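Quick question, first post here. What does this chain look like in 3D?
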Amino acid sequence: MILRASAVAVHLLEEAARRFTGNTAGVALFVRSPGAIAFIAVDHHEVQGWCWGYLLDRPDGTSMLYLHRIEVAASCRRQRIGRALLRNFLETGAQLGAGKMFLITGADNVAARRLYESMGAGLATQGPTVNYWFALPSTPVNPGDAAPGGGSASE
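> Answer (accepted):
Ran it through. Tokens below.
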């Protein structure tokens, strides 16, 4: 059974986070976040898989879906659980107005790439991409502070 995570079913998302990441610290906050979408695959009270991401509003008035993570327990693979999770995520995004979905996966993650391509995904057309990560300061930035480079943020 595929269930959408919500404030009412936060315990299922906590169980999924515990199983796949070992950390449940941010689950309640995630469920309340605008645009957050998550699904959990459950069979007889056992979490078999999960997926989560966001509906992102864009400045051009459109929305897009971002899938950050999808996982199925090793003992539950090849049972179409990943496909069911992805289908629910896509359908929900479309119902919420998203016109596209994007995700990032490793080039050598053949099983995931087969799943995505079998469900209609195509490789990005902008050419090879490079991923960057930034470590952000742990202290909040005051919105009134000057932007980097000395100018204001609106320049």
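Residues 150-155 have pLDDT under 50 and may be disordered.
The longest strand covers residues 46-57.
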